[in-house]
Amino acid sequence: MRRTFDLKVTGPEMPVLRLADGRSLVTCSFIRTDRWQGKSGASSYYTFWYGKDSPQDALLGGGNKHWLNTEVRLSMTVTFEVAPQGRAEVVGCNCLQPALLSAEGTAD
Length: 108
What we know:
Structural class: mainly beta
Shape: elongated
Number of helices: 1
Strand content: over 45%
């Protein structure tokens, strides 16, 4: 089983909010693409499923099928706090529950 992720910046430029202490808050929108790759075989160990009532299963046509591969696209918004000299830190994100945009795949 193999799983990969891609992130692509999307949407219009968003305003930067400068804080009194010199730091800034920056919000960015991303499209996250999750790819699952299984393989054919005598065992369902090499395939996967999303669950009967999951939104991914619904977009893939329902039926709680086992999948050989899928590509699922999600929308994420992340807010970073950026110091004038230093690194950026994530202070807010819908990463754990991103909005589902699309799903396609090949059933086993």
